[in-house]
Amino acid sequence: MIIESSALTHRVPHVFKPFTHLVAAESTRHGGVSQPPFSSLNLGINTDDEASHVDENRRRFFKALTADTFGFASSYQVHGTDVLHTTESGRFTGYDALITSRPGLLVGVTVADCVPILIYDHEHQAVAAVHAGWRGTVGGIVTKTLLAMQQQFGTTGKQCYVYVGTCIDETTFEVGDEVASQFPPAFVQTDPGRQVTCANLKAANVSLLAAFGIPAAQIDVSAFSTVLNNDEYFSYRAEQGKTGRMLAVIGIGA
How much is the pTM? Predict the structure, then answer.
């Protein structure tokens, strides 16, 4: 796992860099105005941070992406598997994935340990943003998102490019037997020395992407951990619930 420090407001996934008309990024915790414990680029609306700080942080983030003229669609996430097809800006409720083919519209998810997954269908010019916690992962939300894209846009795996973003890592996501039993055994490991069991959210979601037919070369997986790189990213678990949120967003230029 890479440990490094920077002051970047966001990172652009390598897999998307060849597509100059595409806006796609994952925020860090740097470059905002929020005070501890939300320091500093807290982009989460549903936190105890001052609303004016979050508004200013979002303005800075979208400006840094040169996407301040884009619309933005997101949802109050419920750790479920429902997928919303949207053609307009707004704050929706009850969805953990959003898909669109509308140019000039960003879709995004907030995270602070769960996995953000960004999908770009190059052939049909469609995108998706997915929030996959452990419930969403075992519930197959990424597969349901791809199937929704297939139904709406004709998406196939071969034309998809995907970023599996920064989340809690496989050495620090400790789970009990009830949660561990819901994962395929390949994505759960027990450390006899520490007497703990951990689940690998990134690998579990990569497996689902591969099963849909997305080539491995078109799947970019973050090298970072919200826990091990807590100076760069917010971590709900490492900071005991009192922290900010990152945004992962994707959209096609108008």
Answer: 0.96
